[in-house]
Structures are given as C-alpha cells and as structure tokens.
Amino acid sequence: MTTKRGFTTTLLHSDRLQKPEHGALHKPIHTSVTFGYDDVQDLVDVFQNKTSGYAYSRQGSPTVNALEYKVTQMEKGFASVCFATGMAGIASTILALIKQGDHIVASSYLFGNTRSVFQSYMDMGLDVTFVDATDVANVESALKPNTRMVFVETIANPATQIADLEAIGKLCEQKRILYMVDNTMTTPYLFNPADVKASLVANSLTKNIGGHGNALGGCITDTGLFDWGSYPNIYDVYKKGDVKKWGITQIRKKGLRDAGGTMAPEAAHYISIGAETLALRMDRSTANAMALATYFEAHPNIKKVFYPGLENHSQHNRAKKLFKGFGTLLSIELVESMDCFAFLNALQLVVKSSNLGDTRTLSIPVAHTIFNELGKEKRAEMGISDNMIRLSIGIEDKDDLIADFAAALG
Ligand SMILES: *Cc1c(COP(=O)(O)O)cnc(C)c1O
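Above: inputs. Below: predicted complex with pyridoxal-5'-phosphate.
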C-alpha cells in the first residue's frame, strides 16, 4: 500500500487505482487461458520470473491477481496467491513447502477438512503432532529439531477455542519455524495474523470475505516476516532474486501451478465485489452474534453457549485484546430434554445449511454432519455433544433472528 488509507477505502479503490482499461472501476473478468507475446523473449522472461506477466492462467491471471493484491492489502502482507477454495490453498501450501522427514505441530481444534488433509499427509509419512494450541506450552513441548511449521486457526469451529496466537508467534520467531495461521473465522477486518508475527495467513474467501455464498475461493498470504533464506526446503530454481519472494514463488509454482487448484476469474470478481462490504457486514453480523449469545445465555433451554464475546469464555480476554470483534461463529448446546432436529426444523428464518460467513444466518447439527466422520468417541473427547448446533450469524435484522430462535426454543 502506498498511502495509509482505511480498510474499506483501500478495497473500494484498489482496482481503479491500478488503472484497468477504459477507466473501469472494477478489474475486468479476463477469461483468457493463455497469453500471447509479439516477442518470444518476453514470453521467456515471464516463464523465468524475470518480468511479471501472464503465461498460462493455471498459475495466474489478471482478474485473480487483482484480488490477490486486495487480500495482501487487507492482511498488511507482502504477497498473496489465490486458490479455487480455502482447502486448495491450505493443502497446496503444505505440499509446496514440506518435505519428507519434516514435522508439523498443528492445533487439535481444526476445521474438519484441514484435519483430514493433515491425516492424508500423515498417511504419506509426514509427522504431525496435534496439540491444544490455546496454551503455547503445549506447542513448545511438541517441538522437535525437524519441526518446520506450526499451524493454528484463530477461532476454532465449532467450539470457538482461541489459539495462544501471540505467544506462539514469539515462539516460532525465536525458533525460526514457519507460523501459519488460518484467519478465516476472524477475517482480516477483525484481525491480522501479521500482528502476532505469523509467516503465512490462510483465508477461505468463500466465507465472510466473499460473504454472499455465491463463490468459492481461498488465499494464502506471505506476511513478509519469515526469513526464507534460512528455510531448508526452497528449491534451487526459486532461490533467485529477492529472498523475500522465495516462499511465495514456491507456493505459486509447486502449490498452485502443480496441484492446479486455480481460482476462476469469475469467482475472483464475485469475491472482490463481496469484499467491498466486508467491514460493514462484519460490524453488523458480529453485533447480531453478540446479541444472540447474550440471549441464549439467559435461556433455560440452552445448556451451553460457545462465543468468545461472552465473559465466561475461556479465552475471552485474549479475543478482546487481539480481535476488533468476536466473530460470526456461535455454537449452542441444547438441554437434553430438547430435540435438536425438532428445534432446527422449527426455525423459519434461519437456514439449515453448512457453510459459514454468509449474509444469511445458517445452522447445522454438528455431531451428525461436519463431525460425523470423527465418530462418537473422538467427539466426546472434543466436547461435542449430540445436541450441539453451530450457527453462522448473518446480517438479518436482529429482532427477527431473536424472534425466530425464541419461537423454536418454545
Ligand atoms: C471453510 C473453511 C476452510 C475451507 O475453505 P473452503 O473455501 O470451503 O475450501 C478452511 N478453514 C476454515 C477455518 C474454514 O472455515
């Protein structure tokens, strides 16, 4: 960013100030798969990373590039690479940066599909230790001489545990370990992992950033804080030029280009438009979430409320210190006498659906769906009961949401 403008101003004017053709205010949707050059030397220079430009859009296109620039600005980062989905970003980045013999420490409270990806890599021989990352001591005692990465989420889904983000950042900096933070649940509007020394930030753009449930996308941002010169897994071909670029180049080449989880230009356009109102939507939906959490806490048919905004949440003070707001993820556990399916079916407004970070409020029974593959025993270990419901709070009028829940709770 050249000037220090506010979050929303920066997003709204990002495309225009890059001067797209015809004075367009939005970066146009460039659908061309390949790009032609009059002089073959120019094509060769793009291939060899000597100039920036486009060759084949699996590894980059102008519309997606404009979105990457926006995410970089939102995250106060150095550079970003977009992917077809959040999962493509996470899976491809690990593929790009980790080698046989490496060890990763990951939070045991992970998005289910991220956990599943780690399991696949473990089945191929990667050593991963899962720890309760709400306390840095657990991360530190799991470290090994070959630990290359610590991976955590900001607010975990569905039980809203908050990793010891700041202390883990200091630990990773001191030990020169890659620190990768999935910022999806907070979004760069509520929190920048760069502020706690994260090396890499993952965002599912499908969720609050795109925000309207109409496009899939993911993004990996290099914060510029990690010294890639000391990282043993950079291939010689990418050890060229500015050392700050080595990591993101390897993610683009070995992650995006080789695994091919490329974002479509149409999706980049939808997500860019959605992101323009991220701040407005987050202010509204986090206020709705706080109001609902307070309402649920006082309701006799609700046994437990999981929301970092509540003072009795185990990491409430951490959330208050680090985040601009407490997020849109809110889980509840009904009392045993309430039937979870009957309650959900009684909701008229709240949609029964997976996904998170939509403009609409969504609800899902956790044990039967997103954590079903885990089995009853593992769920019990994680404190997930059969009566737990995950909510993603939207931007509806607050009183309508409360009325809908009130009616269903009886
Ligand atoms: C949804 C989600 C992902 C995956 O994103 P997709 O775009 O659905 O692939 C990763 N991490 C978290 C925390 C998520 O909520």
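Residues 279-409 form a domain with the Aspartate Aminotransferase, domain 1 fold (CATH 3.90.1150.10).
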